[in-house]
Amino acid sequence: MPLTKKGLGFLIVTLFVGIIIGGAVGQLVGIFIPEDHPATEVLVKPLLDYHVGQVTIDLIILQFSFELTLNISFFSIIGILFAWYYFKYYY
């Protein structure tokens, strides 16, 4: 089935949910693996750590500050793959 019939928005939401669930599983696994264990470096610690500095929007009455940090770990990538599989074959 073509992507246009399934919806690009649903694909983006599905992949985002896969990243979140994969990251949560990675953090949960990190609780049970000791910090000095070699598997911690591969499975739990971020493979990619991207940080965008603080952006401030001043509206005179109200001020917003945003900061974006992206940590991609092994389990986040597994979550993306499972989400893609779900989107492709079950939706």
Strand content: 15-25%
From the alpha carbons, calculate the radius of gyration and give it in angstroms: 17 Å
Helix content: 55-70%
Q: What number of structural domains do the residues give?
A: 1
Textual characterization of the structure:
With 91 residues, the chain is of the alpha+beta class. The chain has one domain. It is 57% helix and 23% strand. It is built from four helices and two strands. A two-stranded antiparallel sheet has the order 1-2. A hairpin with a 4-residue loop joins strand 1 (48-58) and strand 2 (63-72). Helix 2 (8-32) packs antiparallel against helix 4. The radius of gyration is 17 Å and the shape is flat. The model has no long low-confidence stretch (mean pLDDT 87).
List the topology elements:
Blueprint: H1 3-6, H2 8-32, H3 38-44, E1 48-58, E2 63-72, H4 74-89
Antiparallel strand pairs: 1-2
Helix pairs in contact: 2-4
Give me a quick take on this structure:
With 91 residues, the protein is of the alpha+beta class. The protein is built from 4 helices and 2 strands; from the N terminus they run αααββα. Helices cover 57% and strands 23% of the residues.
Task: Record keyword descriptors for this entry.
91 residues, 57% helix, single chain, 4 helices, two-stranded antiparallel ribbon, alpha+beta
